[in-house]
Write a structure and sequence with these properties.
HIT family, subunit A; 5 strands; alpha+beta; 112 residues; five-stranded antiparallel beta sheet; single chain
């Protein structure tokens, strides 16, 4: 498979990891859009949120729980934003489900 996130999860491409377990990995985004910007990625290849199946519900909950736990560890007590881009119109650039967690500054609305 030629998926960059699958290769990061397999250890074939280095990343600045901040969390890893048997189901997911989290690492700092190379193109940070906030002072703190990390990704939470399932090790299982799921193309997008739209591709997630009912059987993936527990994994999706696990990903959001990881995002919240790491946000605390990253001192984002003032708040943070969790974003899942889905499809071309949603801004998804890597075809592997992932959560962006952004913090360390005030987030504006609407986002984009």
């Amino acid at each position: 498979m030629d998926c960059i996130f699958c290769k990061i999860a397999a250890g074939e491409i280095p990343a600045k990891k901040i969390f890893e377990d048997e189901r997911a990995i989290a690492f700092h985004d190379l193109h940070a859009q906030a002072p703190t910007h990390f990704l939470v990625v399932p090790k299982q290849h799921i193309e997008s949120l739209a591709s997630a199946a009912p059987a993936d519900e527990a994994l999706l909950g696990h990903l959001t729980a990881i995002a919240a736990r790491i946000a605390v560890q990253q001192n984002l007590s003032g708040g943070y934003r969790v974003v899942i881009n889905t499809g071309d119109d949603g801004g998804q650039t890597v075809p592997h489900l992932h959560l962006h967690v952004l913090g360390g500054r005030h987030m504006k609305w609407p986002p984009g």
